[in-house]
Design goal:
This protein is an alpha+beta fold. The protein has six helices and six strands. The strands form two sheets. The protein has a three-stranded antiparallel sheet. Strands 5-4-6 form a three-stranded mixed sheet, with no helix packed on it.
């Protein structure tokens, strides 16, 4: 069960009040390495909070994405998945997605040269389109070790 509103300090400055569902969802996502869907989050929390509704989970996830506390990820399987953002700059990572079993692996193994190339690409896009890049996602699709063997 989450502590007494331990995430509230990161939420300050947003118009909405802090609620137990917001705390519970953040606590759950901060303790898992899984990339959970809204339905998985709901199913996990329902046993502890039987009063929570799926609609509340969807609304809360949307608010937490807009506040920058979690990431919404779409891997082409028809459902969004969510992950916690610690707020640390060095946490940025890529995803390896198995097209057979759906496994998602966090990967932060890019080297300085690749990171510099990404920064240059952001700079070019900013100048060419007068567009401010706030973030980016990189996904690599293929087969995980287990699926390659079978």
């Amino acid at each position: 069960m989450p502590g007494p509103y331990k995430w509230r300090h990161r939420f300050q400055g947003y118009v909405c009040r802090w609620t137990l569902p917001r705390e519970a969802i953040l606590d759950l996502l901060s303790r898992t390495s899984k990339h959970m869907s809204a339905k998985e989050i709901y199913a996990t929390l329902y046993s502890m909070y039987p009063g929570i509704g799926l609609t509340t989970v969807y609304r809360t996830l949307d608010l937490l994405v807009r506040s920058g506390m979690i990431n919404r990820l779409s891997f082409g399987d028809g459902q969004n998945r969510y992950e916690f953002r610690s707020g640390k700059k060095e946490e940025h990572h890529q995803h390896l997605i198995c097209t057979k079993c759906g496994r998602i692996i966090d990967c932060s193994d890019l080297f300085t040269e690749q990171l510099e190339l990404l920064k240059k690409a952001e700079d070019v896009l900013t100048k060419k389109y007068n567009f401010t890049v706030l973030d980016h996602n990189i996904e690599f699709y293929g087969l995980c070790e287990k699926c390659k063997k079978s």
